[in-house]
Amino acid sequence: MDDFYKEYILDHYRNPRNFGVLEAPTATAEDLNPLCGDRIRFDLMVEDGRVTDVRFSGKGCAISQASASMLSESLRGQKLEDIARLTKEAVLENVGIGISPARMKCATLGLKVLKTAALGEIASWPDEEKPEAGASA
Amino acid sequence: MIAELDLRAARIARDFPILALPTSRGKRLAFLDSAASSQKPQTVIDALVHYYTHDNANIHRGVYELAERATEAFERAREKVARFVNAAEPAEIVWTRNTTEAINLVSFTWGLANLRAGDAILTSQLEHHSNLVPWQLLAAKTGAELRFIEVDAEGLHELDRLDEKLRGVKLVALSHVSNTLGTIAPLETIVPKAHAAGAVVLIDGAQSVPHFPIDVRALDVDFFAASGHKMCGPTGIGFLYGKRALLDAMPPFLTGGDMIREVGYEHTSFNEIPWKFEAGTSNIADAVALGAAVDYLESIGMSSIVAHERALTAYALDRLAAFEPRGLTIYGPKNRAQRSSVISFNFADIHAHDLASILDTEGVCVRAGHHCTMPLMEKMGWPATARASFYLYNTEQDVDQLIFALEKAADVFKIK
Hints:
The complex is a heterodimer. In chain A, helix 1 (7-14) crosses helix 2, helix 2 crosses helix 4 and helix 2 (62-73) runs parallel beside helix 5 (104-119). Chain A has one domain: Alpha-Beta Complex (Sufe protein. Chain: A), CATH 3.90.1010.10. Chain A starts with 6 loop residues before the first helix and ends in an 18-residue tail after the last helix. Chain A is built from five helices and three strands; from the N terminus they run H-E-E-E-H-H-H-H. In chain A, a hairpin with a 2-residue loop joins strand 2 (38-47) and strand 3. Chain A is of the alpha+beta class. By secondary structure, chain B is α/β, with parallel strands linked by helices. Chain B is globular. Chain B has 14 helices and 15 strands. The chains are: A alpha+beta, B alpha/beta. Chains A and B meet through loops of A and helix 12 of B.
């Protein structure tokens, strides 16, 4: 458990980087995790195939928000094909904690939304899983 | 008295083999999610094994002894459930998969046959999706209007405008006990008024029948839906109670085998209730095991269960209240007589899912999220809550373990 929520996760949760919305983004996407209500939106400014500005917004658990915040830090200057190559594994490594299967969607929601914003069709990236239906009482 | 009840609960917990198993981290299991699904006593597990080992055959068909025994066990279980909720006769108990299917049965049969444009359906703002979505669809199909009894900030039903809301209402559909807030619905006020207004009353009893003695005739409800798996029974079996006159008049739901009287190429006549609503081979083994669950609950006594859960919930509320200065918020009715053994809460800025994950590392199972009541969460402005729920096998030790784990969460999130 001590390796469960590293200090920088709490820092990103309480002080998210690039938090907010862009006034006129060239690309935007939003999605939620119906299981827990985590919600993430990514706004991107893309010029000549490169990200020039980024904001994310949302609400949810520390894992989902910190993961999106950390993701947002490395985006400026990146090419869209770099974003296409971002993997779930890399994101999980960023989060740096043992994610249980139940929390996997929290950790990867930001990546899913970012890729949808950057690349459009969800179908263009095969490692995506369909969100689960709402759980029972 | 409280110590005595707790000792008894500790003895009861030994009837549930899963509760003796440590978690993968070697922690004692504190199972505080019975509102989602209860654990099963050995007698229920044995009933499943016994049925498949000794009595298994299809029912209502075979003339051989084994089939007669299976049919007997299946119908005996129905009698037990009928007696447990004090139905007038076993024929008023229809087996379903769960509460959701029972409610859908009413929506698709009674609902489509009886509702028209201009009619209204009245439910409340704290319903589980299972007692909301079927009525949204029924309203859309029939042109009926869907209305809501509002709830206040504590999750208590606001009844001052009830008479006005009941005008033109054909169906009142309410949960007996809220799965999110534990609110016990004031049925003694609502049901007579609903009947006086000419409405039929359906009660979602998923969260009440496991915890309180239920008398459907004293409550005077027309339909009562429940799930076996929340009352020590297996998953995949639930039931719908309906008054005979209503069930008799209703068209069938699913159609096919077992629910027929006579079938020709062009026309079919239907079986009597309850079998009219039980198309195809039923979930025989799970129905039989639900009968064993009823036996088990009766052997403990529902009034003892009520007394124990009240005492334990009060203990938990008191211990949780000690965290309030550090940002813990307890939701639901403040008057403890108006709530069941469900406690929803949030702790400072820790998201409920993070909290549940941390509690899990200490062996404490709580539910976190919207509890299938998204409109209620939206209305209250809560993105998610953590929920601890208690049952007959929970003890003060489980609550103490929850409190210990909350201290750990405070530590991780640096809450002073």
